Amino acid sequence: MVTKLRKVGLLNLIFLLMLLAACEEGVSPVQKENKESENERVIDHEDKLKIGFSMDTLEEERWPRDREFFKEAVESLGAEVVIREAKGDDALQIVQAETLISEGVDLLVIVPHNAEAVATIINKAHSAGIKVISYDRLVKNSSVDLYISFDNELVGELQAQAITKLVPKGKYAYIGGANTDNNAHLLKKGVFNVLQPFIDRGDIQIVYDQWTENWTPENAHANMEAALAINHNEIDAVIAANDGTAGGVIKALEAQGLAEKIPVAGQDADLAAAQRIVQGTQALTIYKPIKTLAYEAARAAIKMAKGETITTNRKMNNGKLEIPSLLLAPIAVDKNNMDDTIIADGFHLREEVYGK
Ligand code: BGC
Known about the structure:
Blueprint: H1 2-22, H2 29-46, E1 50-55, H3 62-76, E2 80-85, H4 90-102, E3 107-110, H5 119-127, E4 131-135, E5 146-150, H6 152-166, E6 170-175, H7 182-201, E7 204-210, H8 217-230, E8 237-240, H9 243-255, E9 264-265, H10 271-279, E10 285-287, H11 290-305, E11 314-317, E12 322-328, E13 331-333, H12 339-343, H13 350-354
The protein binds beta-D-glucopyranose.
Keywords: Signal
Protein name: D-xylose ABC transporter substrate-binding protein
Subcellular location: Cell envelope
């Protein structure tokens, strides 16, 4: 009996010693596991939030600004950002976004090249528990969590309001953006909201109306050459979807000796466009303060990554859902308010615009 008791005592002692050996600084394995996961949580909490930014292109003058301001904004809010540029390639944009997701970004911000093609990314991000913000361009037919942009329909309306003041009657050419970009459709809608009553009255005729593949100035130039040829140069006004395409249009007008004679509208406040405006070959641009967009997007990204709610001001239908949206106000700029807007904001320097 005594031997038996001694045996049990010995076994208990061995068990106790094994337990102590497995313990670190008097902490049991179970406690140790809890402590480790607590540490992990603490580390997670202390780790910087990581925001992924998937960009279509850096081609137009505005996009490097978007990239720099977004980076600056995210970093100023104490988070880090990983940026990828897809060079206008849908397949590459999808692969890059997938990589950002697998690298563990806390939130994904995307400027889609093709509004429809990247919808698949949203599902993948959601499966990984990551929310997605559509930046400047809306991702169509998807459950994207937030859309943040300028009011693109209003951009088109402002262009058409300004041009119809200059040319209330006559033949109009519309040089659209890329058919694959939802913004191109919103801009066109805005333009025709304003033009339609003029068209209905018979004051304005649309003598040319084309999309510009990939928004390139070269394609816009070819479009404008075609518009002039088909209409034997009888065109009174041109609305181009951005300043890059307006540049292509003006080059085609110059070749026919028509620059300065035919008003052209663009958007983006590119430096070349601001220069053309003060020189007289472009009538107006639409200025969109990119810094505000980038900072708003960065603030929203960090809030959403932390699970906080965002204040929005609109809902935009993307073909599947009404997407909560934050739309900022664009500003029409011609030679009369150039100094008070683009230059006053420091978007371009006065000497860059006027060349003196
Ligand atoms: C943007 C414009 C830009 C164009 C071409 C549009 O979606 O809103 O600002 O000029 O894309 O990149």
